[in-house]
């Protein structure tokens, strides 16, 4: 005689779902335990934002035949157009930017370090209507981890490069 009932071996849907929830919780805790993951992401975003804004400002300077500039401060940076600082009311895209807390910058123009927050309030970096830049280097670091650094460089011809520096 044939047996009509077979015992099927395997996992039920509920068992698989419970295992998936447990794996999700473990991954969540592992992600939270990585302390500076958020700071590293913020740092990379700030470097990308500045590079994008500089590219846009350079294109704007070329298209509108005007001179654009950037003034760097310890807390952030602001854009200038034909020698006048741009405010949020004038241009939301090129409004003054404040760096997130814990992120700091070091600026070099034409190879020379720039003293931030000097009293001149004039652009240090010029983006000319010819498409040329003042050669620059902006180094972004996290105060809590000096080994995490990004370097944004620009040449006189307007070519920019971002690289992550590994400092040990």
What does this structure look like?
By secondary structure, the protein is of the alpha+beta class. Helices cover 29% and strands 30% of the residues. It has helices at 13-33, 37-64; strands at residues 68-72, 76-81, 84-85, 97-98, 103-109, 112-113, 125-127, 136-142, 145-154, 160-166. Strands 1, 2, 3, 4 and 7 form a 5-stranded antiparallel β-sheet that branches. A 5-stranded antiparallel β-sheet has the order 6-5-8-9-10, with helices on one face. The longest helix has 28 residues, at 37-64. The radius of gyration is 25 Å and the shape is elongated.
Précis, in short:
The protein is of the alpha+beta class and 168 residues long.
Quote the beta fraction: 25-35%
N-to-C SSE string, H for helix and E for strand: HHEEEEEEEEEE
CATH architecture: 3-Layer(bab) Sandwich
Instruction: Give the N-terminus to C-terminus distance in angstroms.
Output: 76 Å
Average pLDDT, all residues: 84
- How many alpha or pi helices? 2
Q: Estimate the helix proportion, in percent.
A: 25-40%
Contiguous uncertain segments of 5+ residues? none
Q: Count the domains.
A: 1
Count of individual beta strands: 10
Descriptive key words:
168 residues, alpha+beta, minor pseudopilin epsh fold, five-stranded antiparallel sheet, elongated
């Amino acid at each position: 005689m044939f047996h009509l009932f077979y015992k099927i071996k395997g996992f039920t849907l509920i068992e698989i779902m419970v295992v998936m929830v447990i794996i999700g919780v473990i991954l969540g805790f592992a992600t939270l335990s990585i302390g500076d993951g958020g700071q590293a992401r913020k740092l990379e975003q700030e470097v990308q934002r500045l590079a994008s804004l500089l590219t846009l400002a350079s294109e704007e300077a070329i298209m509108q035949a005007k001179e654009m500039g950037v003034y760097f401060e310890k807390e952030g940076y602001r854009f200038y157009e034909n020698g006048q600082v741009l405010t949020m009311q004038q241009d939301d895209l090129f409004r003054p930017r404040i760096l997130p807390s814990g992120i700091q910058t070091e600026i070099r123009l034409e190879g020379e370090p720039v003293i931030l927050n000097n009293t001149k309030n004039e652009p240090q970096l010029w983006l000319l209507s010819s498409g040329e830049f003042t050669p620059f280097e902006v180094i972004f670091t996290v105060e809590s981890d000096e080994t995490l650094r990004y370097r944004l460089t620009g040449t006189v011809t307007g070519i920019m490069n971002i690289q992550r520096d590994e400092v040990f």
